[in-house]
Amino acid sequence: MKLEFWWRNGLQKKRQLNGKSGQNFVFAMLMALNVTAQKTIVEGVVMEQGKRIPLSGVKVGFYGTKIATQSDSLGRFVLETYYPVDSIQCYLLGYKVTRKKIKPDVHQEINVLLPPVSKEFSEVVVLPPDEFPSTKLHKKVVAHKRVNNKEKLEAYQYEAYNKFQVGINNIDTALTTIGPIKKLNTITQYFDTTDNNKLSLPVVMAESVSDFFFTNNPKKKREIVKASRITGVENLQAAQFLGDMYLDINFYDNIIDLFGKSFISPTAPYARNIYRFYLEDSTFHNNHVCH
Predict the structure, then answer these.
(1) 88 and 63 in contact (C-beta within 8 Å)?
(2) What burial letters (b/e) apply to 249-279, b meaning 16+ CB within 10 Å?
(3) What domains lie within the chain, and their CATH numbers?
(4) What is the tens place of the pLDDT at every residue in 195-228?
(5) pTM of whole model > 0.90?
């Protein structure tokens, strides 16, 4: 047997070991490795301090190395290495990083308790409903009612589209499966769905397109109907519906009269006590914010 090795001490030299002396050298080196390279094995359970609940997903590693693992669903872990180490470190979000001393070169069992991180707040601010974007917008609308009210204008005109519909709402879906109703295709094809997912059946629908004119001094208004249509019920005169098709509603009034009933206007200062306002979207139009 022939063994060659190199070492540096100022100049490189080469030395040969032959026969039995070389074998003795290799045996001595293997014995030295066996003595110095003992394995360190650490196993245990990671738990929350106080409650002693096993913690899963905890990163457990030998401190100062890249050797690490994660605890399982029962908080258990196993680590092993030949490197010289003296401690393990445990890390989990929401808990304090914890280090624990270990004995090198032996197999040992260690349980680790992680203290949870407790945050203290100086104060908790609860915003009232007035801070909601929709409420801020409603306050601005109310504040500018006089500026935007059409009644302050000397005169104005616009094209109006009016739709008047009378129907039967909240129809039970089981009604559509009844034999006689099911056979009336001319009826079932007109069923519609309302916002609350209930069936409705329009009975009368009247539509019109007109030009509306208004002057403030003297106060006069005029409507010219350009087109109209009534569907749903035969033998009804158009005048019955078209005579009052135009509803002169001022959106900025606090009370709105509609079909003989009074309703609180959405622009009334106290409307937030009656209605719920939601700001669905905002955009820019001609460098102005529009909602």
Answers:
(1) yes
(2) eeebeeebeeeeeeeebbbbeebbeeeeeee
(3) 2-36 (no CATH), 40-114 (2.60.40.1120), 129-290 (no CATH)
(4) 556 666 666 777 888 898 989 888 888 888 898 8
(5) no
